[in-house]
Design brief:
heterotetramer; A: 2 helices; globular; B: alpha+beta; Aldehyde Oxidoreductase, domain 3; four-stranded mixed β-sheet; 9 strands
């Protein structure tokens, strides 16, 4: 399915955009994570090693775990390690 | 929950303000109020900093701020007014990035609440800092992973 | 020593003010500032309080405030701006009795400095509080002896 | 000798004044403390038991100990337990 992604922090600069769509095989966060890793390997040469593994995936109300389900109806946010304050 | 003020400031529209925070947490029954202000510094890790840009996931940040308030209320275990506000967008050196205030009957709870709030905001709120350096470079902060 | 602001406020002439304290401890190199405000509460030990009168030994209080600043500078071990001001005379409920602010490069030092300052002021500065109750009584606070 | 005393906190109310003079036999803080205790026993019926023992004696620049010298030339302050903040 196609998942709509919203990007934050360093990821916006890597994609040169704050939104993107991604073809995902499977319906879990882990599948989305794998699909994004494959996309990043092809398109984000400036990606810091290990950064994607530290990114969380979230809806607009909660952070999901790798075993949670994703749906084409729900836009997902990709959250790099946070550095507010 | 009316005793929590949860806010993500749009820096273009309004500057963060300590007086607003302190007014919010005042109460005739409260003897102590604490405040933390985080400002943009002119140096970090030995580099000259001209400014900082904050990126925020606004809806998720407000959810997290509300959770932080509930966690602190449980931890402090008594009356509490809490104010959390974070700037969004580009800031210059000296500008206020975050304001936290806590009002409680006694001072120990106010200090604990304020400290716990800033630590939680820094470590778990969906906010990202990009530093802009004097030499033209920019870099995103290292940060804390939100994965378990 | 120019980084310490040591002040006993005459309440008749001026109200204590958080903004003044925060401005004093700001610095381009400082990322964190903390503030503590102590206010007159409407109840204490189960009694309704109308107001408080503070008696201060002014010259000795300024000596003690200066000692406290030096002690904290040694304890924190780095750059520090510290502001200590205490009201003198009669205050109503909600009025500010004491304002302490600390500015440092990083937040941990600012929290430690602010907390140590208010504890030291409460336990060792020559200041006495008399509470005025709704029933017309007044009582001096129990307090900490300055004998060794 | 005669020592001039400045009173603070609850002591002002007991003496109904913020200054007093006291005849002291001896030249140490301990002698001043004993003289004040004798005066209080005669003139301050409302004095809380044990309060005087917790009072410190000070100049305008430092707190003195019981073995320190006092002088008729230096006004002394009597400091009850403190309760600021």
């Amino acid at each position: 399915m196609i998942i709509e992604l919203e990007l934050f922090g360093a990821l916006r600069g890597l994609e040169h955009a704050d939104r993107m769509s991604l073809q995902v095989s499977g319906d879990r966060v882990a599948d989305l994570r794998a699909a994004l890793a494959a996309y990043a390997a092809a398109h984000w040469p400036g990606l810091a090693p290990g950064l994607l593994a530290k990114c969380a995936f979230a809806t607009h109300s909660e952070i999901l775990r790798d075993g949670d389900a994703v749906s084409a109806d729900v836009r997902m946010s990709v959250l790099p390690p946070v550095s507010g304050g | 929950m009316s005793n929590h003020f949860l806010h993500v400031s749009g820096i273009a529209a309004e500057k963060l303000d300590a007086a607003t925070a302190l007014d919010f947490v005042a109460d005739p029954g409260f003897g102590g109020a604490t405040l933390f202000i985080g400002r943009v510094r002119d140096r970090n890790h030995g580099r000259d900093v001209l400014g900082v840009s904050y990126d925020i996931h606004r809806p998720l940040a407000l959810v997290r701020f509300a959770q932080i308030a509930v966690e602190i209320e449980r931890e402090v275990g008594g009356q509490l007014k809490l104010y959390i506000a974070h700037a969004h967008g580009r800031l210059a050196v000296g500008d206020i990035a975050v304001v936290i205030a806590a009002g409680t009957p006694h001072r120990d709870e106010a200090f604990r609440a304020c400290r716990q709030a800033i630590e939680s905001v820094k470590h778990s709120a969906p906010i990202w800092k990009q530093e802009h350096y004097a030499n033209g470079d920019s870099a995103w902060g290292e940060g804390c992973s939100l994965c378990d």
